[in-house]
Design goal:
about 0% strand, about 120 residues, mainly alpha, single chain, about 65% helix
């Protein structure tokens, strides 16, 4: 709904769209963080969380620069439509996949883990 804001009379569309997007980000963040914390071994949890933060926060400047370039090249409204479409792609792909219908991610079949000890190395 954010790109539909074209004047001060439609600013409520921006507020509704921004609130909906923020709500989705919070829910997604809670679910992803909970999954990481329950599935990561305790001794690796700090490394997992640090890596996730490094990658996600490291992508923010690149995304900001790309958004600025898109806004300058395409114009503001086409760039907003492109960004909003991209933001909806991830949840759509997940909902249409097998994962979207699961209540428990452990229901997915895990491949057999192959642990190699030092004595087994070639």
């Amino acid at each position: 709904m954010i790109p539909l804001t074209t004047s001060t009379g439609t600013v409520s569309l921006f507020a509704i769209g921004n609130a909906g997007f923020a709500f989705g980000v919070v829910i997604g963040s809670i679910m992803a963080r909970t999954h990481r914390q329950t599935e990561s071994p305790p001794e690796l949890l700090s490394r997992v969380m640090a890596t996730v933060r490094f990658v996600s926060w490291g992508a923010l400047p690149a995304g900001s620069a790309l958004s600025g370039v898109l806004g300058a090249v395409l114009g503001l409204h086409p760039a907003l439509w492109l960004v909003c479409t991209g933001a909806l792609m991830a949840p759509t792909i997940i909902l249409l996949s097998r994962i979207g219908g699961l209540r428990d991610l452990e229901a997915l079949e895990k491949p057999q883990e192959r642990r190699v000890t030092i004595s087994q190395r070639p």
